[in-house]
Automatic annotation (TrEMBL), chain A:
Keywords: Membrane, Transmembrane, Transmembrane helix. The chain crosses the membrane at residues 6-28, 35-59, 65-85, 115-138. This is Uncharacterized protein. It comes from the Bacteria. It comes from Demequina zhanjiangensis.
TrEMBL record, chain B:
The chain crosses the membrane at residues 12-32, 44-64, 71-91, 103-125. It comes from Demequina zhanjiangensis. Keywords: Membrane, Transmembrane, Transmembrane helix. This is Integral membrane protein.
Amino acid sequence: MDFYAVIAYPAVLIVSGALVVVGLAVLISGRGHRLLKAVVTAAWIATAVHLITVVVALLSGNDAGVVLTLGYLLASVALLPLLGIGRLGEPPAPGETVDPDRPVLRPDQIMRLDAIAAIIIGIAIAVVAWRVAVIMGAA
Amino acid sequence: MSDERRVVNPVARISLIAVYAVLCLAATGRSVYQISTKFSEAPLPYAISAVSAVLYGVIALALWRGWRRTAVIGSAVELAGVLLVGTLGYVESSWWPDETVWTGFGSAYGWVPLVLPILALVALLRARRVEADAR
């Protein structure tokens, strides 16, 4: 529980903040896509650590509502694939079957899309982590 | 790719899909929990949360598949729902023993449920106007 309260929960909040800040910076400046991808990787890691830590805390006797907590944890995992959603707009590889519903975007459009997704998901992950912390009695 | 799909700005379209997917997830989680644990306490608010979850999912799918008419109707219904539920929450507060996704015009969700259908309608109707001008 200490590791959750001192490390895992703050780490998710910090990474969420970084997603929002870097996403805004990329959106405004049109640069820094590689940095944004690094922050997205950090978000996956922080969310995984958060999930494992909360599950361990629940198994070790925390009296938080299990259904609600697991629901929020599942939500945080379900949000992650939306990070880097710009990849949906990448041109199809040679020989790949083309989906007519999939738009093909320019690199700058993909970068803007990733930035917008990072801002949205950063806020959503922070809210979910905060809700879990409230349920766990750590916030 | 059809003209209908091409005239909607792709960045706006995928951004809207992402936000609708997040809202669908949030509303689904909320309504499943409320309906499965305490539906009898506030059937109307919890049913409305479930309806909003379905609506968000349908709009996200419609935007992705290029079903513009469905997306326009869904967004209009969503906007009407937010305005109606938000207003009734203040006018007839006794009808609402608990909150819905649309209570307080979506204030618990940062008013995203109010702003989002407006943005979606602007993007979709602008695309239709561009298409009409091109003919």
